[in-house]
Design brief:
single chain; alpha/beta; Rossmann fold; 2 domains; five-stranded parallel beta sheet; 5 strands
Length: 272
C-alpha cells in the first residue's frame, strides 16, 4: 500500500479564526463523530492483537506501549489506569514515552528522532519473547517507534502498530497493523484531536478486552479494583451487598477486611 499522510492533509474547515465559538465547537464535534466508525473497521486487527496478548500474559508476559508526544502520553495513561481498575501489578502493562517522564509534561527536543533509543528503553525492562510491543504513532513516521518495532520483531516478539495513516512506515515495521483512518484534523496536522481520540479508544479496547479474558472482571463489574478512595470503597461495598444480600455495614467491613470485592465474596462463600 502506498503511504499517504492523511493526518497532514488540509482540514475540511477553513477560516477558523473567523468562526464563532459555537461554529468551532460544532465543527470539531462533527469531525469527532467519524472516529468511532474508523475504529470499528479495525476490530479484526485489535482482536488478533488481544488474542496474542492474552496468550502471552497467561505465560507471564507483559504488554509494552511505546510512543512519542501525544501518542506516548496516551500509552502511559492507559498503562497507568490498569492496576487500579483491574487490581494487577503495574509491571504487567508498561507505557514508555520518548524523552522519559519529563516528556509527559514538556516536549523533549529531538527525543522521537532517535531510531535506537526506543529499543534501548525496552531493554532496560528486559523485554522478551513472551512480551508484546505496541507502537503508537498517529503520523506513522516516528523513528523512536519504528526502530523499536523493527528490533522487537527481529527478536521474535509480537508487535503491533497503531497509526492513523494507512501503509505508514510504523505499520510496515509491525506484525499487526491497526489503522483507524480518521481523515484530516479540524486544525490541520493537529493529531492530538481525532487521531488521539481514535488511539485512546483502541487502547481502551485492547486492555479492557485483555483484562476481561484474563478473568479480572465478573459479570460486568471490576471486582479486582484497588480501593484507592472512598468512592471505590462505596462501589465495592454495593457490589457485595448485591451479590451476598448483606447490609451495607456488613458488606463494607468484609470488603475492608479482604481488600477486594472478589476476595471478600470468595472468603464469605467459603465460610471464612
Amino acid at each position: 500500500m502506498t503511504y499517504i499522510s492523511i493526518t497532514e492533509q488540509e482540514s475540511n474547515h477553513n477560516h477558523l479564526e473567523q468562526k464563532s465559538v459555537h461554529e468551532i465547537l460544532t465543527g470539531i464535534n462533527k469531525e469527532d463523530q467519524t472516529v468511532a466508525l474508523a475504529v470499528e473497521k479495525t476490530i479484526p486487527d485489535i482482536e488478533r492483537l488481544v488474542t496474542g496478548i492474552v496468550e502471552r500474559m497467561r505465560r507471564g508476559g507483559r504488554l509494552f506501549y511505546l510512543g512519542a508526544g501525544t501518542s506516548g502520553r496516551l500509552g502511559v495513561l492507559d498503562a497507568s489506569e490498569i492496576p487500579p481498575t483491574f487490581g494487577i501489578p503495574g509491571s504487567y502493562v508498561i507505557g514508555l514515552i520518548a524523552g522519559g517522564d519529563e516528556a509527559l509534561r514538556n516536549a523533549v527536543e529531538d527525543a522521537e528522532d532517535d531510531f535506537d533509543k526506543g529499543w534501548e528503553d525496552l531493554m532496560e525492562h528486559k523485554i522478551g519473547r513472551d512480551d508484546v510491543l505496541v507502537g503508537i504513532a498517529a503520523s506513522g513516521t516516528t523513528p523512536y517507534v519504528i526502530g523499536a518495532l523493527r528490533r522487537a520483531r527481529e527478536k521474535g516478539i509480537l508487535t503491533a502498530a497503531i497509526s492513523c495513516n494507512p501503509g505508514s512506515p510504523v505499520s510496515e515495521a509491525a506484525e499487526i497493523k491497526i489503522e483507524p483512518v480518521v481523515g484530516p484534523e479540524y486544525v490541520t496536522g493537529s493529531t492530538r484531536m481525532k487521531s488521539g481520540t481514535a488511539q485512546k479508544m483502541v487502547l481502551n479496547m485492547i486492555t479492557t478486552a485483555t483484562m476481561i479474558r484474563l478473568g479480572r472482571v465478573k459479570g460486568n463489574r471490576m471486582v479486582n479494583m484497588q480501593l484507592t478512595n472512598q468512592k471505590l470503597v462505596d462501589r465495592g461495598t454495593r457490589m457485595i451487598v448485591d451479590e451476598l444480600s448483606l447490609n451495607y455495614e456488613q458488606a463494607k467491613n468484609l470488603l475492608l477486611l479482604h481488600g477486594s470485592v472478589r476476595k471478600a465474596i470468595e472468603q464469605f462463600n467459603n465460610g471464612a
